[in-house]
Amino acid sequence: MIRLGVNIDHVATLRNARGGTFPDPIAAAELAIVSGADGITAHLREDRRHIRDADMPRLKALSAPLNFEMAATDEMVRLACELRPHACCLVPEKRQEVTTEGGLDVVGQREALSSKINRLKDAGIRVSLFIDPDTRQIETAAALGAPVVELHTGAYALGGSHELERLQKAAHTALTCGLELHAGHGLTYDNVEAIAALKGLAELNIGHFLIGQAIFDGLGPAVQKMKRLINS
After folding, report:
1. Which residues of the chain fall below pLDDT 50?
2. 3-state secondary structure string, 187-214?
C-alpha cells in the first residue's frame, strides 16, 4: 500500500487571509487522518506565510506522523530538533516564489547539507530530501546518508515531455541506492496514477489539489478518492 501524506498548508493560507483562527489547519489534519491519510505534511516557511510556529506542536500531537517540510537553514533545523517530528523534508525555498519551484540542489549544497542532515538524524528525525529526478542528485543524497528522497513531480504535472520516463529512471536509481522513495508536487486525480505506479514508491505527499477539491467535495471524500486512486 502506498502511503498518502496530506499537506494542510493551504488551510492555513485561508485562515491567515483574515488573520484569525478559522479555518483551523489542525482540524483539517484530523479530518484527513480520519478519512485515510497516513500522515500530515506542513511547511513552516521562513516568512510564515501559512503554517505558524504554534501550529507545529499541535500537529505533532495528532495520531498520524508529522512530516515537517522546511528549508535547510539553521533556524529550521533548530526548530525541528526541538519539536522532533517523525520526519523532515528539506526543500529549496525562495521568499518570492508562489510555491516550490524545483528540487533541492543536493550536489551544489553537499557540504552545507551534510551537517544539517546529521543534526536531524541525531535528533531521531527521519530525513527526506526533495529533489528533481536526476541521477547525480539522488546518488549524492544517498552518499549524505539521507534515508529518503522525494521526487519533485512538478514538471511531469505540467505536461513536460519525457518527464514520466525521467521519473521512472530516477525511481530505479533511488531503489538501487537503497533509498526509500516518495514523490509529490502538482498531483491531481487525473495524473496521479502513473506516479503511483512507479516501482518501489512508498509515499505520495499531496496538498494544494486536495485542499482545493475540498471546496467542491469536502476534504474527507477528496482524501478518500485520492487514497483509492493511488492504490488501485
Report:
1. none
2. CCCCCHHHHHCCCCEEEEEECHHHHHHH
For the question of residue 162 being annotated catalytic, the response is no
* 43 included as an active-site residue: yes
In angstroms, the Cα distances linking 192 to 138, 208, 231 are 22, 14, 10
pTM of this prediction exceeds 0.90: yes
**CA dihedral of residues 40, 156, 94, 139 (deg, nearest 10):** 80
Reported as type and span, the H/E element at residue 143 is helix 135-143
C-alpha cell at 84: 522532533
166 is in an annotated binding site: no
d(CA 72, CA 63): 26
pLDDT at residue 99, rounded to an integer: 56
Q: Which of 69, 93, 150, 203 is catalytic?
A: 69
* Model pLDDT, residue 95: 59
CA separation for the pair 206, 154 (Å, rounded) = 12
pLDDT of residue 160: 85
Instruction: Tell me whether residue 95 is annotated as binding.
Output: no
185 is annotated as an active-site residue: yes
- Those residues whose C-beta lies under 8 Å from the C-beta of residue 200, and which sit 6 or more positions away, are 171, 174, 175, 181
Orientation angle between helical segments 9-16 and 208-217, nearest 10 degrees: 70
| Cell numbers 540542489: residue | 105
Q: Please, what is the end-to-end C-alpha distance for the chain in angstroms? A: 9
pLDDT digit string, tens, across residues 171-204? 999 999 999 999 999 999 999 999 999 999 999 9
